[in-house]
Amino acid sequence: MKNEAGIRAFGAHLQRLREARGWSREVLAQSADVSRMTVYRIEKAQLAASLDVFLSLAHALEISPRELMDFTQPLK
């Protein structure tokens, strides 16, 4: 992965947003119409979310894409 630190930071941010709502990975996955394994792999930085999945996650969380991208990315 070219941007591993950023992928890790995004996954942690997604997990915080999900947990703040009291949602399981299954609930988020169903709401975003993706698999539970996809949510797991994004949160654990094993997968970089495609734009399509990213937008589906923002919609499921009822937040703007900008808010979903509002995380601190550590420098390399």
Describe this protein's structure.
This protein is mainly α and 76 residues long. The chain has helices spanning 4-20, 25-32, 36-43, 51-61, 65-68. Helix 2 (25-32) crosses helix 3 and helix 2 packs across helix 4. The protein is globular.
- Approximate shape: globular
Number of strands: 0
Radius of gyration: 11 Å
First-last Cα distance = 13 Å
Biggest sheet, open or closed, and with what strands and sense?
Answer: none
Helix content: 55-70%
Unreliable spans:
none
**Helix and strand succession?**
HHHHH
What structural class do helix, strand and pairing data support?
mainly alpha
Beta-strand content bin: under 5%
Number of continuous helical runs: 5
Overall mean confidence score, pLDDT: 94
List keywords for this structure.
76 residues; 63% helix; mainly alpha
Write a brief caption for the model.
This is Helix-turn-helix transcriptional regulator. The chain has 76 residues and is mainly α.
Draw up the topology in text.
Layout: H1 4-20, H2 25-32, H3 36-43, H4 51-61, H5 65-68
Helix pairs in contact: 2-3, 2-4
